[in-house]
Amino acid sequence: MPWKNQGGGPWGSGPKGPWGSGPQPVGPRPPDLEDLLRRGQDRLQQIMPGGYFSGLGITLIILLIVVFWLLSGFFRVQSEELGVVLRFGKHVRTVQPGLNYHLPYPIETVLLPKALRVNTISIGMTLIEDPARRGRSIRDVPEESLMLTGDENIVDVDFTVLWRIKPDGVGDFLFNIQNPEGTVKAVAESAMREVIGRSQIQPILTGARNVTEQGVQELIQRTLDSYGAGIQITQVQMQKVDPPAQVIDAFRDVQAARANQEQLQNEAQTYANQVVPQARGRAAKILQDAEGYKEQAVAEAKGQSARFLKIYDEYRKAPDVTRERIYLETMERVLGGADKLVYDGGPSGQGVVPYLPLPELAPKRAPMTGPQSSGANR
């Protein structure tokens, strides 16, 4: 018999032990579970006339069980999830985020993959907890990042892959691959090694990153589609592309020399772009002047030949008159600009006094200055 059921016991009345009264509870005592069950059974007996095992009681219990079973089919899909409803293990439909319903277990079940979330996988580097900095630090993973290029150089490549589940490929994602993250990481590393192995080191280190990223993304997507993985690669980002640490100084010197070479080439190209148009402009001007002179000379020659033909036609009609006219016009053209006066000594020229302008014909002397000039004037 327990101590609390003893009337007085050897130590007196009440719940006392051999060392006196036990600890007294502070505040209201919690309800007794047995008492609650007993009260629930009494109320259920009052509701079900005839007891538990009567026909009406069994029917009500079965109805309650069926109702609770049907209500168990309601489920909620979160914002980053998609609901994959399985009927006896077979994929029958996909539901969007929100409150949904499926036939209760075991007829239908639901899986809730994070199909709308973009996942990130880092290759060639890993994040580790750094207590000294109270955060995370990046640690290089050489076995993943060191790759061999097409020209037999070693390059250290760290990159990340962004991926998500295809909205129409949730079933493939759940049933065709067992370890999605491991599969994406292995395929991404293999694709990067293949693309790097077909490329030269110089374009990879300088300006071919976008081409490399695009090629790796397409290769990863083709491989995953061949697996039927139901995964979509959204982006490939190359974080670091450097030569190995042992030879990075030599590579930097080479890069500096090539940068200087490109600068000099650009300056030479700029000078050529400035000089060549000027030379072409001058050449075009010379050609245009020559073409103009040619047209002018041809036009003048044609004009003179036409004039000669006209004169020749007139000459044939009246040779003496034309000959005299030509003679007079020629003499007028020759003597028209001469500073000479010509007259004949015939009767018509008797009143003309000959005059020879000797001062004008003598050479002019410069005026003299000083005492000699004044003496000479005296």
UniProtKB/TrEMBL annotation:
Residues 72-255 form the Band domain. Signal peptide: none annotated. Residues 247-274 form a coiled coil. Keywords: Coiled coil, Hydrolase, Membrane, Protease, Transmembrane, Transmembrane helix. One of its GO terms (biological process) is proteolysis. It is found in: Membrane. GO terms for molecular function: peptidase activity. SMART domains: PHB. It comes from the Bacteria. Residues 1-32 are annotated as: Disordered. Residues 1-20 have a biased composition (Gly residues). Gene3D superfamilies: Band 7 domain. Pfam families: Band_7, HflK_N. NCBIfam families: hflK (TIGR01933). HflC and HflK may interact to form a multimeric complex. Belongs to the band 7/mec-2 family. HflK subfamily. HflC and HflK could encode or regulate a protease. This is Protein HflK. It comes from Bradyrhizobium forestalis.
